[in-house]
From TrEMBL:
It comes from Winogradskyella vincentii. This is Peptidyl-prolyl cis-trans isomerase. Belongs to the FKBP-type PPIase family. Keywords: Isomerase, Rotamase. The keyword Isomerase applies. The gene is gldI.
């Protein structure tokens, strides 16, 4: 009986030493979500591009400039003599109002003080301000991906809304660091 008990323990011990087997996945994802998302974004960008081009064509008196950062702008008041433009750390004071491409005002004229590249501001406006000089007024047209994008501003600007921003740069206080 004692031998039978030892054999039984030996068999249980050997059976329990088996290494675990990998479980096969029940379904295989092929990355289709990412492909679909990319296609959706391409279609959205093409639609916004057509809308923006339509606005520019309907205003032939405006001299639109395409920026390297993917937005368009024209000067309402251009300053030729000054060469001062904001850079990292400068404190700027500017007025702006925001509307959608249909011209409906989203935010009425607001005054804002902003430390260049040290505070949060949507990409398009941050890059647009870097092009401006004191006393200049510029109208920017931002596609949604460089405005507030998918999330909006969680207040008045919804998902994927291209924006028109009229901006006047009032003052630049240079960073002395």
């Amino acid at each position: 009986m004692k031998n039978l008990y030892l054999i039984l323990i030996l068999l249980v011990t050997l059976a329990s030493c088996k290494s675990p087997e990998a479980r096969m996945p029940e379904s295989v994802k092929s990355g289709s979500f990412l492909k679909e998302s990319a296609e959706r974004n391409k279609k959205l960008n093409a639609l916004e591009q057509k809308m923006i081009e339509s606005i520019m064509e309907s205003n032939p008196d405006k001299d639109y400039i395409a920026s390297e950062n993917g937005f368009w702008y024209f000067y309402t008041n251009k300053v030729e003599s000054d060469t001062l433009q904001p850079v990292f750390g400068d404190v700027i004071d500017f007025d702006f109002n925001v509307s959608n491409l249909e011209g409906s005002e989203i935010y009425a004229s607001e005054n804002k003080t902003y430390v260049m590249d040290k505070e949060e501001l949507f990409t398009g406006l941050r890059e647009g301000l870097k092009l401006m000089k004191p006393s200049e007024s510029v109208t920017f047209i931002f596609p949604s991906q460089i405005a507030y994008g998918y999330y909006g501003d969680e207040n008045k600007i919804g998902t994927n809304v291209p924006l028109i921003c009229e901006v006047t740069l009032n003052n630049i206080n240079k960073n002395n660091d």
